[in-house]
Amino acid sequence: MIDKKVKVPVREQEPKVRAGNFKEVCYGYDTNEAMLEATRCLNCKNPRCVQACPVGVNIPSFIAKVKDGDIEAAAQIIAQNSSLPAVCGRVCPQESQCEGSCVVGIKNEAVSIGKLERFVADWARERDLNVSKKDPSNGIKVAVIGSGPSGLACAGDLAKKGYDVTIFEAFHEPGGVLTYGIPEFRLPKKEVVQYEIDSIRKLGVKIETNVIIGRTVTIEELFEEENFKAVFIGSGAGLPMFMGIPGENANGVLSANEFLTRVNLMKAYLEDYDTPIRRGKKVAVVGGGNVAMDAARTALRLGAESHIVYRRSDKELPARAEEVHHAKEEGIIFDTLTNPKEILTDDTGCVRAMRCVRMELGEPDESGRRRPVEIPNSEFEMEVDTVIMSLGTKPNPLITSTTDGLETNRKQCIVVNENGLTSLEGVYAGGDTVTGAATVISAMGAGKVAAKAMDEYLKEKYLSE
Ligand SMILES: Cc1cc2nc3c(=O)[nH]c(=O)nc-3n(C[C@H](O)[C@H](O)[C@H](O)COP(=O)(O)OP(=O)(O)OC[C@H]3O[C@@H](n4cnc5c(N)ncnc54)[C@H](O)[C@@H]3O)c2cc1C
Ligand code: SF4
Q1: Does residue 268 have its Cβ closer than 6 Å to ligand 1?
Q2: I need a surface site. Which of 49, 204, 333, 383 has the fewest CB within 10 A?
Q3: Ligand 1 midpoint to CA 144 (Å)
Q4: Protein residue with least CA distance to atom 8, ligand 2
Q5: Which atom of ligand 2 has the smallest separation from the CA of 113?
Q6: Residues 417-435: pLDDT tens digits?
Q7: How far is it, in rounded angstroms, from Cα 181 to Cα 176?
Q8: How far is CA 179 from CA 11, 184, 195, 395, in A?
Q9: Is the minimum distance from the CB of 213 to ligand 1 under 6 angstroms?
């Protein structure tokens, strides 16, 4: 007899074992477990879960198919709205989106929508099912800048409508944060990310890597010299922010982006690679979001005693609940209500400690979260040899500074209307470069919205006779 009040548990690697390897933490559901979990869904007439999904996946319909054991039909339903289901099933913040709105969650544990989506996507991938349909080619060239979730979603949708789509990517590997940010133990690169990118390639999308728009070629040149008729900018928000405290330039201080990129993209954790990384003995990661959890858990796997240093309390941690839970299980030490004031160095200029201050929570600020306030005379030294700053990121200004007339706001984000159209005709944008650092699903949603508007614009302008 199963207890229908709680989710069917998902199998995971033991915390002690996984803390020493980079293999995926969660094994996901098998068919029986998924079918059992699917019986917990009430198939609501007005499903609140769908309203809370940024891309509107028809959740009750796909879950009903899982319940009947028709997984292929479930995959087809998900594919109508999502081009990266195996990714979203793994990394979406379900607790604040679909599962956070699930009616079952009012009295009991919400339906495990994310794990069901992951199961269906993995099932389809293992069978190499092609669930996407494509219109005949119309020969119109569209450029997509950046191969993260926003660019991939936009490119995929436009290719399905028959456009000749080329993605330009600055790095040598496509995928954006999916490839260089989120670690292997949360999102396997070869099996999952590469597969989803290949599916988009199979739709006819070309991906040119090592092309930096704004340096190798400008947006103007894409239009005037390369005959592209529309451009989507999905260049993300990859520029790290720092605290501006003394000592931040010391040897042993790095941004989470740099640390994770070196580990993920350049395989710096493998001894025989040319890009080794500093393996700290005692590492402090400053911040409390998903990126901070990923950096702390990566440092742990590289052999460090790993701390999260966060100025608010446990309750305000912005990371996905599952990441915080996994990090704690693995032995990450959480120094909450703590804020660094200075990074202290030894006589060789290397980090030896952080001078920190204890915090308490005051009145709520503009974000609605209680403002952290310093406790007087509570300063102390925390001995560390590596500090990883994970305080958020903003868009790199390269594209905006090389494109005349492209409007940005005071946070350097590109300004768009509700259809993703920028201040320039034929130029659309979406994802983190518009919103600032956000989520995979919202980036993907923005790519899809822009693709729809680009299709309407291009049809009107070039295919209307
Ligand atoms: C470590 C980490 C963990 C995260 N964890 C989660 C999570 O668990 N759940 C979640 O929902 N979200 C998570 N996020 C956030 C999420 O990954 C991002 O919101 C999402 O990837 C944004 O997608 P994007 O397409 O806008 O940009 P990106 O994924 O950043 O992709 C942008 C791409 O554009 C390329 N580019 C930039 N400039 C140029 C240029 N000039 N020319 C050509 N190419 C260019 C970049 O190289 C990059 O590949 C995480 C982010 C990080 C960094
Ligand atoms: S809200 Fe919950 S119970 Fe209702 S359809 Fe969505 S997943 Fe099923």
Answers
A1: no
A2: 383
A3: 14
A4: 41
A5: 7
A6: 999 999 999 999 999 999 9
A7: 8
A8: 24, 9, 12, 18
A9: yes
